[in-house]
Design goal:
Number of strands: 10
Shape: globular
Structural class: alpha/beta
Strand content: 5-15%
Radius of gyration: 19 Å
Length: 353
Amino acid sequence: MNSTAAQQSLLEHYVKKILAAPVYELAVRTPLQLAPGLSEALGNQILLKREDLQPTFSFKIRGAYNKLVQLSAEQKARGVITASAGNHAQGVAHAARQLGIAATIVMPCTTPELKVLGVRSRGAEAVLHGESFPFALEYALRLAEQTGRTFVSPFDDPDVIAGQGTVAMEILRQHQGPLDSIFVPVGGGGLIAGIAAYVKYLRPEVRIIGVESEHSACLQAAMQAGERVTLPNVGNFADGVAVAQIGAYGFEVCRFCVDDVITVSNDELCAAIKNIYDDTRSITEPSGALAVAGIKKYVAQKGVLGRTFVAIDSGANINFDSLRHVAERAAVCSAPVLANVSATSGAGTCARS
């Protein structure tokens, strides 16, 4: 089988898994909502896929449930363990309670309290370990080996990827007109792999653009190197994507399905949180605002007009006491790039933090 045929076969495999994923037993179909202020300011139609409206306020419930529901009776009886910066943790906890499965979640000590409480309120055991996700992951894998519980990866698992891919299925059904690009937040790569597999199989002309924090840009590093690399350290401001290495299953798809990867600063994320609030009156966490920050940067760099862009608004689990910092840093950024300002003017850029 040649490489093109192998790639198509891989995409077909994921499309079938996505179509069969029973995520709506727990997750909801979220709206694809016009962002009028951003659209007018940027001179392009900006649509927000509102995954912050899921029961756990993040898309992660999709992949978590799709994985847990397909475990064998024996695996369910033994229980599950996972590592997460918080959103996957809440998804696993919610799905495990629904299915009657005991769940232990290892989370970094830097995890926002809101996410820890979200796990415990759903009946799962939350174990705080390590300063960042890689340390929590290592400890969770060790615990899984010691206890015999099934490890549920937050992103590096075909069933998790397929669950996240149902986001793309909804987008293409909700918007059947012209669509230039879908901007996707990237942490470990499960969401972008699922979306890319589905979209590139059905509408290959639609561009898939990953957006990463400049402090955890593991997909960009892997794409440049042609192989997965491990970042020496990661920043925790966008804690939902603070991952040092892109997942193996995800990168297998991303390496030929992702058209571009953009990185953004913490200040650009804060400005994007404000933009989303202005248009929706909802408060997004930093990792949830990555896609909007990426669109703003893309428009400023490319000077494009009249296009239709989708941004995945991926989560809203942010501590209330963090909002003052977000508001202060958002003020550092200029207003969104205006439609009549060229990409070379520098409008829409922000000071780095």
